[in-house]
Design a protein that fits this description.
The chain is an alpha/beta fold. The protein has helices at about 10-25, 30-50, 65-80, 95-110, 150-160, 205-210, 265-275, 290-300, 320-330, 345-355, 400-415, 450-465, 465-490; strands at about 10, 55-60, 85-90, 115-120, 130-135, 165, 190-195, 195, 210-215, 230, 255-260, 280-290, 305, 335, 360-365, 380, 415-420, 425-430, 435. The chain folds into 2 domains: about 5-225, YjeF N-terminal domain (Rossmann fold, 3-Layer(aba) Sandwich); about 250-500, Ribokinase (UDP-N-acetylmuramoyl-L-alanine:D-glutamate ligase, 3-Layer(aba) Sandwich), CATH 3.40.1190.
Length: about 500
């Protein structure tokens, strides 16, 4: 079953709001949602448990709706013939309404089952005898540090050799920031219900949640529009885009790159090659004449335009007018930054070009510090890593979640698209929409990968003419290539040149 919510990353409050609207405005009861969640999760657990023969499954329940999900799962697994023990670790008083309903149903089934055991005395729980432990203690409702006796139970769970599956989110993990609230279950799998949880991709989330599964619920699809963050998975977006075959090359997408300074030409080479292999019509490198021999040697498919004398080895103010005129003759995307340098004349030249260029503009690396963003006429995407956000007066972030909130706010405040590189990578737009990578992007922090990403971004933007598609496709392309390389050769760290 497909769900529009699978592409979304929700905060705890957003998940609660949609759950509440579904119950109160659309007439789908919480009990029905819990039944659907438990039914689907039981099927996932059956698939996960195939490597065991008659596994002993222990479900550890708290008192809220997360425990109710666990009780529904227990009922379905018991009916399938699995040996199930359900431990009410926090007692059976003050259960949530839907949890109480499913607790009573499970007790009725127990009377007719030889495979179901309900444990109400925590002293009788034997963690070491379980093959699979299902964590149904807290879910996303936890806000404060885990207290006893749950704290000790979570510590015991993490010391066992049992395979651990958490429901919705590992108990003890903050649903938004991914922060461990004192102690948290370290799961092998996490089964999410209804919405994908933001906290599984920030802070300690990815390290505690293991492999992720998603169970769609009967949430109205229209309500998904209220969630403005989207997940960028490894294979969830298009790889290469269609281009207009048979038309002139300059109508199939053009990227202009203003090249860097002596000693930093490799950055421009990586960006130019990366842009070329997106499938666009033409890449034009604008270079000081003194660097032309380097680009003639390494860039065979790209057009080169030289400026100044053969002694010129960095961009100067006198070149700005001619570069601007040549760029405007071939409409496309302008990429500035890879290996640019910060010479005074270079900064002045970049300022003039950017202030007089009204097309789509990708600003990366050194160019981030040169531009007066208030004077830019066209659409702009900036691609800073965390340190480079300082030019927007960013604070020292205490967490990646704080970076997310700050970047989203800055994109709206400054009316620009910000591709904030890091783990995870965050793309934030002026209309409050944002993308978050959900795969491990730490490998892309090595030198050169930013140049490759900038080239892909400019190339895909020139083809699609849509910055949302361009960012999705560029990030997806990087992840897909990493997946392929890691599967075929994991003996060395990846080289940015492999990703062009």
């Amino acid at each position: 079953m497909q769900s529009v919510y699978k592409q979304k990353l929700a905060t705890v409050q957003e998940s609660r709001d949609i759950d509440s609207k579904t119950i109160n405005e659309y007439g789908i009861s919480g009990d029905m949602l819990m039944e659907t969640a438990g039914f689907q999760a039981a099927d996932i657990i059956v698939r996960i448990s195939e490597k065991w023969q008659q596994p002993k499954i222990l479900i550890l329940c708290g008192k809220g709706n997360n425990a109710g999900d666990g009780l529904v799962i227990a009922r379905y697994l018991s009916l399938k013939g699995y040996h199930i023990s359900v431990a009410m670790l926090l007692g059976v008083d003050s259960l949530s309404e839907d949890c109480r309903k499913n607790y009573n149903r499970l007790k009725n089934i127990r009377n007719d089952s030889n495979t179901l055991c309900i444990i109400e005395n925590p002293d009788e729980v034997a963690l070491d005898k379980a093959d699979i432990i299902i964590d149904a203690l807290f879910g996303t409702g936890l806000q404060d540090a885990v207290r006893e006796p749950a704290k000790s139970w979570i510590q015991k769970i993490n010391r066992t050799k049992a395979f651990t599956i958490s429901l919705d989110i590992p108990s003890g993990l903050d649903g938004d920031s991914g922060k461990v609230l004192g102690v948290a279950v370290k799961a092998d799998y996490t089964i999410q219900f209804g919405t994908r949880k933001l906290g599984l991709h920030f802070g300690d989330g990815s390290g505690y949640s293991g492999n992720l599964e998603f169970c769609p619920l009967s949430f109205p699809s229209s309500e998904a529009e209220s969630i403005t963050r989207e997940a960028l998975d490894t294979f969830s977006h298009p790889h290469y885009l269609d281009f207009k075959k048979g038309e002139h090359k300059y109508k199939n997408g053009v990227v202009h790159i203003i090249s860097g300074s002596a000693g930093m030409t490799g950055a421009c080479v990586l960006a130019a090659k990366s842009a070329w292999y997106t499938g666009l019509g033409s890449v034009i490198v604008h270079t000081p004449a003194g660097l032309l021999s380097v680009y003639d040697k390494y860039l065979l498919q790209q057009v080169k335009k030289a400026y100044g004398s053969t002694e010129s080895r960095h961009l100067t103010l006198s070149m700005a007018k001619d570069i601007l005129e040549n760029i405007q003759q071939k409409e496309g995307v302008l990429l500035i930054g890879p290996g640019l340098g910060r010479e005074k004349e270079t900064v002045e030249a970049i300022q003039i070009i950017c202030e007089n260029y009204d097309g789509n503009l990708v600003i990366d690396a050194d160019a981030l510090y040169a531009v007066d963003y208030q004077k830019i006429k066209g659409q702009v995407i900036i691609t800073p890593h965390t340190g480079e956000l300082k030019f927007l007066d960013a604070p020292n972030f205490e967490s990646e979640y704080q970076r997310l909130l700050w970047v989203e706010n800055a994109a709206v405040t400054h009316s620009m698209t910000i591709l904030s590189k890091g783990t995870p990578t965050i793309a934030a737009f002026p209309n409050s929409r944002s993308f978050v990578t959900t795969y491990d992007s730490r490998v892309f922090t090595r030198s050169g990968f930013g140049d490759v990403l900038a080239g892909k971004l400019a190339g895909f933007w020139s083809i699609s003419e849509d910055k949302y598609i361009a960012i999705q496709t560029a990030l997806s392309d990087m992840a897909q290539r990493y997946t392929r390389f890691s599967q075929t050769d994991n003996t060395h760290l990846p080289d940015p040149a492999d990703y062009v």
